[in-house]
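Please go through this protein, sequence plus structure tokens, and consider how the sequence yields the tokens. Keep your notes short.
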Amino acid sequence: MLKRKFYDYLLNWKNTKDKECLLVKGARQIGKTYIVDHFGKENYKSYIYINFVENPKYKEIFEGSLSAEEIYKKLSVYIFGIKFIEKETLIFLDEIQDCPNARTALKFLALDNKYDVIASGSLLGINYKEVSSIPVGYERQVDMYSLDFEEFLWAIGVNSMAISYVKEFFDKKEKVPNDINEKMFEYLREYIVIGGMPNVVNTFVETKNYSEVQKAQEKIIRSYYEDMIKYAPTVEKPKVRRCYDSIPKQLAKENKKFQFSVVEKNSTARKYGNSLDWLVDANIIQRIFNVSTPLLPLKAYEKDDQYKVYMNDIGLLVSMYGFEMKAPILENSIKGPAKGGIYENLVSDILVKRGYKLNYYKTENASQEIEFLITTSAGVIPIEVKAGNGTSVSLNTFIDEFKPMIAYKLITGNIGVIDTKTTLPLYMAMFI
């Protein structure tokens, strides 16, 4: 079984919640069902599982009255041998996007508060208009992603003690011994080509076969295409796929800004904007906006028409470049603009899974670009990403002009500190 940090989040929710259901959001096949199912069986005397896709008849439970008492009665009719034990029962409503009434009912189940309720869905962002009443205040929403880099390390046999040892060098800002640094980069390159989708990681752990890894990744991408056909509005179906398929091309450009002309020659946001929104709402991609001013609050300075797009799983991006891309990455021999895009997507993958909201900063004359900005208790922190170990003119200029408390430069080298600028090996993004 893959060890997931989300399990601890579920335990914390169980112990701290007060009249609220938990709504777990995320793309398909990231492990939502598996981890909640395991959590329910391990921590409750009674566990009730409802999947609205596997058993569409369960939707009938949420027709008519949505009072908690009526729902419990109907559950006892539809599920033989069901047990309700107060404070010791978990009801898991899976694929809730297929039953909008169940989403509305979360309010009444939360108010009743006799039993714990977790709901999960893969396409919740695209069907919110179908829900007659969003249970605001009665559901705690949380985004879940595929395995992060640390969870990947656990999966391939790197224990927490070894990771903690490496983190000591980050904390002390001391150079990592060369053999350890090289080994961590080897693991990082494996993560780049494999990513964190649970089935893909399990395939690698069990087979150590990169061909099988590629097959597992392509299967997931095909399932995304099927969702586009099934759930996207009719007029958007082909356009959603074109936007999705353009992402590897977008990230292989020198200018990583998303351009609709790459999706289709001479095209604009007017034609494809809604299609890109669909991919964001489906939790398949991450869109980060440029800001006119890199100061708090970043949201106030976002430029709505300037953004970059990254895949939410780095392994899926690499698989879209084709199997032939895996060897150059693993051998650290990849060259060209695509390398920079892959490493940017890697850092986006790691930081988003750390819980950061990302922006970037690029001046109008393109003389200065900082790949990522994050907000912490120390204010706005710039993060520059280098696929090699080149100079950092943009970051130096940023530091001089905006004087951040700390600035990070992520490289394929080792640790170094000059005043407020800290240079880190790319894998240490997991500690930021």
